[in-house]
Structures are given as structure tokens and as C-alpha cells.
Amino acid sequence: MIKLIKTFGAIVLAATVTFASAESNKVEVPVDMQQVSTHQMKIGGVNVPYTAEVGFQPVFNADGDATATLFYTYYKRSDVKDMAKRPLLISFNGGPGSASVWMHVAYTGPRVLNVDSEGYPLQPYGVKDNPHSVLDVADIVFVNPVNTGFSRVLPGADGEMPSKAEQKEMFFGVNEDVAYLSDWINTFVNRKARWESPKYLIGESYGTTRVSGLALALQQRQWMYINGVILVSPTDLGLERAGAVKQANRLPYFAATAWYHKQLEPSLQSKDLLELLDEVEAYALDKYLPALAKGNSLSASDYEGVAKQVARYSGLTEKEVKQNNLDIDTAYFWKALLRENGQTVGRLDSRYIGLDEKEVGIRPDYWAELDSWLHSFTPAINTYLRDELGLKTDLKYNMFGPVHPWNRDGNKTGENLRQAMAMNPYMKVMVQSGYYDGATNYFDGKYNLWQLDRSGKMKDRMSFKGYRSGHMMYLRAEDLKLSNDDLREFIKAATVPANKPAKYDLIQ
Fold first, then answer.
1. Are 394 and 118 spatial neighbours (Cβ–Cβ below 8 Å)?
2. Which among 434, 83, 451 has a CA at the least distance from the CA of 273?
3. Cβ distance 428 to 237 under 8 Å?
4. pLDDT value for 2
5. Pairing of strands 139-143, 88-92
6. How far, in Å, are 62, 138, 188, 351 from residue 192 at the CA level?
7. Rounded-to-integer distance, Cα 280 and Cα 123, Å
8. What Rg, from alpha-carbon coordinates, does the chain have?
9. Counting CB atoms within 10 angstroms of each CB, which of 256, 317, 357, 471 has the fewest?
10. Which pLDDT score, from 0 to 100, does residue 57 have?
11. CATH number of this structure's domain 2-35+43-239+375-494
């Protein structure tokens, strides 16, 4: 049905569909609606007026039928006259199955969580102005893929919901996700008249897989060329990173976490973190990786030497390293590092400390950081969208939505990103990683860049930025500023000057 919704004195035309719950209550899902409010704030001491649009935009199939509706929040600076020069940042979180809440109200958006300087939740819950937001240099749209946030699958023309198998085929897989989202972005850019604007994709965690695939899909399917891609705490992007490489790449993260919790010997503990990590990275590549690759052909003396050095850098005992055949599983590390204290460390951010029922075991009972984040993010996003931006809905905001099983077959998103860069001389890529992230560790992020372009011909268009925090580095006040400053400079540098041709010069 079609209904008129009056909000903030504005009339909004909204198409809605009604679902009946198990209790026969009717829940209306807006299919196609927009609602705009006006705001202003200071960024870097400068007043920035902007509009905030909350809306639902359909996903259309090849026949032009709406198969799902995606909820988005679109921030646009309102004192800009030439939109052709105004960058547009298209933002996704990961999971898969995660809403866009994380970067929205903690990183780049104009309002951020009320947390302490290290990112721990504070009451009263809510949001405050983000003086570091990149809204001064780019408009931002935060997109919630199907079944995340308020986004939902829609019934077919017959009024029946697609089966789970049909939904999976349409939405829930690496390539399925990229295909429908590229179409959705095309529709959004058409509606907002942003074809001339420089465009950037930013994704966090699984969102890096998503935007790497989208970089090529937008160019090949939509003929839409992207200026830059930002990979925040990146996944493997379908790049081969198994066996000894996967095992060795963990060591620098282990060292960072052990250093943070003061579990290293004095000679290492006295070093600055970055000085320590330079040393450990070199050891991981030059010594640890070959030793792991040799397996049981490693000599007894070399085995003893590696066990001693891995224990020295990881904060574990030599006995533990040997019991794990030199290969330390991350779950074991989270459980074992502070075992003598009766504590565990977090997965996504190992600065966080947890308490398990038993000190024995090979993995923590729960992830201390995730519960801390859900503690503060869930009330904040619901209050912000419903009360401050005025969205009225009975829909549940899915922090994590039902999208599994996820089809990971045919994941070539890293190669997709490389190909998109090769085809587009304008495109630049930046990785942002936290040193205390144990889920997508920072050294893997560096490794991605090394493997993304083995020829080195595009190396000058790739950059890495590291932060003294975890998966969501921006939760720490110091890194909120630093990461936004890095992103701001990246956007400025990747926005091509007028009349500069997109071409390669002959390599001399």
C-alpha cells in the first residue's frame, strides 16, 4: 500500500508492505521512503551544515520487481554549490550479517557514541558530535545489506516470501551480495544525481570483501568508476593465505598484545610498540615462516631456537609453544596469555579483558570486546535513529541479521580489486588496521597489499595505516582523530584534479 507520513513538517511518500507476525501483529516495512532533517556541527573548528536522510530504497530484480528494501542513512553537506566536485563515501560494515551501525556512529559519521577515551561504554547511553568526521570533505551514505539494520527481504508478486534457498541465491553469498549491491548503488547514485561526484568505497571487516568485489562490479556492470577504496581491518579477500603463512603472520599481533598487557621480558617491554613490531615482523618473515614450512624436517637445535624466540615474542612459555608444535592458535592465545591472572583477552580488540568460569581450556568463554560494544552501540543506534532523526518504525534493528549459511564459493574479490585498479588509473587503495585486532590481524592486512599487486606496478597507489587499538580502531579517542585524518587526506589525494587524463604513461 501507499501511505503519507508527516515528519518534521515534511510530507514523505512511502510505499510500505505489511507482514503478519506469529502473534498476528502487523509490522509495516517501508519499501521506498525518504525522510530528511537538517543539522549543523563543528568539524575542525569550522561550522558544517548538513542534512541527514534516513530512507528505504528497493533492490530491483531483472524484471523491475522489488525483492528487498535496504535501509540507509545519507549525510550531505548543505552549503556545497558544486556537487560534481563533492566526494561521496559509500560505507559498509561486515559480518557478513552486520549492520552499518559500527562505522556510522563510531567512526566517520557526524555523531559518535558516548564512550570513554579507550572506547568502553558509559552511561547514559547515546551519541555526541564527532568533531573528526570526514563530512567536511565528503558526503556519506551508510548502507545496510539485506536483513541487517532495518533492511528486509520482500514478498514476491504472489504475496509469499521467497524460500530460504531462494533468498540465499539472491542475496547471501560473496558474489550474490556484490551483484545486488552494485545495482542498488546505481539506483542510489541516479536518484541523488551523484554521477559526476568522485566516489569512494569504505568497508570494515567482511565489508572489505564486499567493497573489493564492488570496485570491479561497479566498473564492469554499472560503468561507474571509483576513485578510492578503503579497507578497514580487512579479511583475506580470497587471497591465498594458508598453512605456514597464516601461522607466521599471527606472531606480530601476539607480540603487540603481549606488550600491551606487559607480558614481555624487560628488554622487549621497554621498546616502543612500533620498534618492537618492526623486529617481530622481520623475524616472522625471515625465520619463523621458513621454520614452520619445514615442519618435522627442522633440526632439533633450530626447533629449540624457534620455540624460545616465539615464546619470547608472544608472552607464552616455551613449553606452551612446543606443545602447539610451534603453531599458536589465536583462540589458545586469547585464553592463555593472562591465564595466571585468571583472565582472558578479547578477539577483535585484545586490550579488552574477560573472565572465564575456569582457567583451564583452549578458548575463552566469550568475547569481552563484543559484549562491551553491543552494550553501548545497541541503545545508541536505536535512540539516535528513532528519536534524533525521527524514524518511526516497529521493525527491530538487526545488529547482526540472519544471512547464514553464506556462500563463500568463488571468492576472488582481491583479484577483482587488483583488476579494477589496473583498469582505472585513478583508483587508490588504503588499508587501516589496529595492532591489537586478533580477528583480522594487521600483518595480514600488510600481506594483502603485498599480494594484491605482485608486480609492484601499482604499489605507489596503495598505503597502510596502523593504530594502537583493535578491529574498530576509531573507538579509542586518539585513533578516532588519527584514522579520520588519514581518511580525509586519502580522499583529498585520490580526488583527481580537473582535466587530468585517466591514462598510464609509458614505463621507461
1. no
2. 434
3. no
4. 31
5. parallel
6. 22, 14, 6, 41
7. 39
8. 24
9. 357
10. 98
11. 3.40.50.1820
DSSP lists the bridge partners of residue 199 as 88
Distance CA 364, CA 331 (A): 7
Task: Name which of 181, 205, 193, 187 is nearest 88 in CA terms.
Answer: 193
Is the CA virtual torsion 434, 436, 441, 444 positive or negative?
Answer: positive
Closest CA to 392 of 3, 10, 30, 21: 30
DSSP at 98:
B
Phi, psi of 49 (to 5 degrees): -80, 145
pLDDT attached to residue 462: 97
User: 428-434 and 228-232 as β-strands: parallel, antiparallel, unpaired?
Assistant: parallel
**3-state secondary structure labels for all residues of 423-444:** HCCCCEEEEEEECCCCCCCHHH
What's the rounded Cα separation, in Å, for the pair 341 and 337?
9
What confidence tens digit (pLDDT) does each residue in 64-120 have?
A: 999 999 999 999 999 999 999 999 999 999 999 999 999 999 999 999 999 899 888
Instruction: Characterise 36 by phi-psi region: left (phi > 0), alpha (psi -120 to 50), beta (else).
Output: beta
- In terms of residues, how long is the chain? 508
Q: Quick one: cell of 345?
A: 583477552
Going by C-alpha positions, the residue among 257, 246, 230 that lies closest to residue 434 is: 257
Rounded Cα distance, 273 and 376, in Å: 29
Pairwise CA distance, residues 256 & 268, whole Å: 11
pLDDT at 348: 96
Average pLDDT, the chain: 93
The reported pLDDT for the residue numbered 97 is: 96
Distance of CA 331 to the CA centre of its chain: 21
DSSP state of 173: B
DSSP reduced 3-state for 202? strand
Ranges of residues in the chain with a pLDDT under 70 are 1-14, 16, 18-25
Angle at 359 between CA 356 and CA 362, to 5 degrees: 90
Cα separation, 85 vs 10, in Å, equals 29
**5 in Cβ contact with 55 (< 8 Å):** no
Say if residues 33 and 15 touch (Cβ distance below 8 Å).
yes
Helical segments of 287-367, H only: 289-294, 300-314, 318-323, 330-336
The secondary element (H helix, E strand) that includes residue 281 is helix 273-283
3-class SS letters over 395-428: CCCECECCCCCCECCCCCHHHHHHHHHHHCCCCE
HEC assignment per residue over 209-220: HHHHHHHHHHHH
Res 7: pLDDT: 35
pLDDT at 495: 76
Listed residue (387, 380, 408, 471) closest to 434, CA to CA:
471
Query: Do residues 487 and 108 make contact, with C-beta atoms less than 8 angstroms apart?
Result: yes
